[in-house]
Amino acid sequence: MQITPITRRKSQADVPVFAPLASRPLGIWDSFATARRNVLELIPAASLHLPILSGKSVGRWHMVTDPTANRRILKEAPDDYPKSSVTKDILRPAIGESLFVAEGEHWRWQRKLAAPVFTHRNVAALGPVMTAAAERAADRIAASRGRAADMLAEMVQATYEVISDVTFSGKDGFDRDALNRAIEAYLDDAAKVSILDILAVPTWVPRLSRERAKRLLAGPKTSADGLIEARKRDGARPVPDLLDLLLAGGDGSDRQMTTQELRDNLLTFILAGHETTALTLAWALYLCAFDPAVQEAARDEAAGVLGQGPAARPATAEDVAKLPYTRQIIDEALRLYPPGGFMSRTAKAPDVLAGHEVQPGDTVSLPVYALHRNHRLWEDPARFRPERFADRAAIDRYAYLPFGDGPRICIGASFAIQEAVIILATLLARFRFTAVPGRVPKPVMIVTLRPEGGVWLEVQDA
C-alpha cells in the first residue's frame, strides 16, 4: 500500500531521546569511568559535524565518521584494521575464537562454513519459528491491555525464544533458561571495560568479572557440547536448525568444525542475534509511541496484510515484502539506536584516513551512533523519519552501518530484519502503544545500546 507522507513541524519536542556526547577531552580515569557508565559518552560531540577527530591519551586514537574512510577500514583493507584487543578480550570468555572474535585465516575458514547457513532460502525456512514467537508475544502483551508493559522485556523474551528454537531446536535436556541467565549476567558485568583494559595491561593479568563470567557459562557450555555430540550421533532433525546446517556445511575439504567451534559459534549467534534484535524492536516500539502518526501509518499497512485488532493473524516470512513501511521503521530505529553503536579497530599498517595520518598501533574507532546522526550526511539527523529509507539507493552505504560492512558484515543481518518485521507488524496490527509520562528510556551502551529503564508503553487494542 502507498503510505501518505507525514507532515511534521520542527521543534525540540519532535526529537526522540538521545545520549549526550562528550563536550570536553577526557583523561584516563574519566575515560574509564565513562566507559563503565555509557560508552556513547566517550564520543566527542564534534563527531556529529566532522569527518574525523584524532587525539592521544594512553595511545593515539582516531574517531571516524567519513564514509570514504569507513569503506577503507571495513572493505578495502580490513586485515589492516582488525578488531581491537579490548573488544576481543571482553567477548572471548563467552564465545571463544568464534566468528566475532577470530581474525585472519581462522576467521575466513569459519565464515566460509557459516555463510551458507544464512542464505535467503534457509532464513525464509526459519520464518515459522519467528511467526510463532510473534504470536506468543502478542498473547502475552494482550494480557496488559489498559495498562503499561515493558516492551524491552517482552522483546527480549520473544527474540530469545526465536534464537534458542532455531539454534538448539527441541529440548534435548538443554537448559535454555540457564544459558539466558548466564548471558544476561555476562552482559551486565563482565562485558564492562576494566581499568586494566584502559591501561593496556596484558591479558594474562586476570579481569575478575570475566573470570566470574567463565564460571557462570561453564555449565551451559558443557550442556551445549553434549547436545552437539548427540546431534552428530543421531543426525539432523526433520526441519534443520542452525546446528544441523552448520554440521552439514563444509569448505570442500575434510575439515569440519570441532564441537568447541560449533558451540562457540552457536553461542555467538545467540548472543549477537537475540539481544540486538530485541533492542531494535524495543526502540522501534518506543519510536512508534513517540510519533503516533507513524504508528498509525504502519498499522494501516499491517492491517491491510494481516487484518486488524485481536483477529489479526501473525505475520509470516512471505509477508515481509508486503510491509515496506514497517521495514523503514526498523531501518530508522537502527539508525537512531544502532545496537552496535561503537566499533573499535587497531591499525596494523600506516595509512591516511580523511586526511589524517594513521600509524600502526593507533586505535581507530567508528562511532556508529554519531555517524548515523552526522549533520554532513543526514537531513534532520536527530529526528525520527522512517520515510528517509523509502529510497535506499539514495543513502551512502558507508554512512549507515547498523550491521557493519565489508567481509565482516553481520552474517545474520537478513535473519534479524526478517524477524524484526514479522514481530513488529504482528504487534502493530493488534495493539496501539502510547508513551507513559515520565518513563522515557535512556540510551546506554556497554556492549550494546540498551534503553536503560526499559520501554514502558500503555497497551490498547488497535
How are the strands ordered across the major sheet? Answer: 1-2-7-4
Distance between the termini: 19 Å
Uncertain stretches of 5 or more adjacent residues: none
Biggest sheet: strands, sense, closure? 4 strands, mixed
Mean pLDDT: 88
Folded structure, characterized:
- The chain is built from 16 helices and 11 strands.
- With 462 residues, it is of the alpha+beta class.
- The chain has a single domain (12-461), classed as Cytochrome P450 (Cytochrome p450).
- The protein has a 4-stranded mixed beta sheet. A 3-stranded antiparallel beta sheet has the order 3-11-8.
- Helix 12 packs across helix 13 (292-306).
- The longest helix has 32 residues, at 259-290.
- The radius of gyration is 22 Å and the shape is globular.
- The two termini are 19 Å apart.
List the helices and strands and how they pair.
Blueprint: H1 28-37, E1 52-56, E2 60-64, H2 67-76, H3 85-95, H4 104-114, H5 120-125, H6 127-142, E3 148-150, H7 151-167, H8 176-190, H9 195-198, H10 208-234, H11 242-248, H12 259-290, H13 292-306, H14 324-336, E4 343-346, E5 351-353, E6 356-358, E7 363-366, H15 368-371, H16 413-430, E8 431-435, E9 442-445, E10 449-452, E11 456-461
Parallel strand pairs: 2-7
Antiparallel strand pairs: 1-2, 3-11, 4-7, 5-6, 8-11, 9-10
